[in-house]
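Friendly challenge for the regulars: who can give me the structure tokens for this chain first? No prize, just bragging rights.
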Amino acid sequence: MDWTELDVHPRIISAVHKANIKSAKDLFTSSIGDLQKVTQLSIPDIYDLQKAASAALQKHSALTALQLYKEKTRFPSQHQKLGLGCGVLNNLLRGGLPLVGITELAGESSAGKTQIALQLCLSVQYPETKGGLGTGRRAVYICTEDAFPDKRLQQMIKSQHRLRTDVPADVVRKIRFGDHVFIEHAADIDMFTECITKKLPILLLRGQVRLIVIDSIAALFRCEFAAKDAVIKAKHLQTIGAKLHQLSRDFTTPVFCINQVTDAMKEGDSVLNHIGFQDRKVLPALGISWSNQLLMRLMVARTQREAPPPFIDCVLRTMEVIFAPHIPQATCYYTVDLEGVKGIGIQGL
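First reply, four minutes later:
Bragging rights claimed.
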């Protein structure tokens, strides 16, 4: 905020500058006592300052959700999405992942979670007209459990010209996919916290990274906390979630977190009913403390059925939207083959 524009005595403005108060947020979130200490102003002076700052802020008209929805050219980041590299899956998610917020993908082992994450790391590098976020954009892949699946990534890179037939072949050839995926390993919460608070901001400030993948978030907490440490665990989850939200918001970068699942509680349990998973055998790990950090939750599962032709010898999988503020609950089928992740329309079943 430009303090010189406020209708207050210059003496008050000078005190604010000396106290190094830079924003209206600092002014309104600090107590009167704290403001007195740092500015050496009287209580009436502080009230005058807050009143003038409030009047200045009110001059900027607020925006309604309807305006944000209708004025797409004025607010492109509210409407642009990161595609999954598959038209069927993009249709399910109304275009793909939102650019601001945390999207979680939960599911059992072998459901295809890592495959989807790898495909996103490639998809982000395509032009915006093809569902990406710009040629040359990069992804950060944070491994917390297993080694990074480099061989599988190389397979998918070599098959991009077959998977992405919607993109001209010369465009695909020019993208150096393997050079644009940064890999980081974080074996515990301390290493992960250092990564997202120190290393990751440096990469984001360079302006090239436009996707953050965490595989997986639950692995960090599996052995660190006992049942009696639930409060401490919740605080760590809230701190991590707040930092990831800040990075996503400040750099307009989607955060994609893979999560594991746990056995569901018995049907009829009040907590189970409250979060809407009554008939499930498994639930996303980390509980409601983590659920509250999410913008969108997706669940994937491996079925016992084989995919229909032309997906020969591929297992049928499902992707379900559990909750999201902009799309309803919905499900679609997909499969994974050598080329990557491919959605299957209802007509194919």
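Residues 67-348 form a domain with the Rossmann fold fold (CATH 3.40.50.300). The two ends are 58 Å apart (CA to CA). Your move, everyone else.
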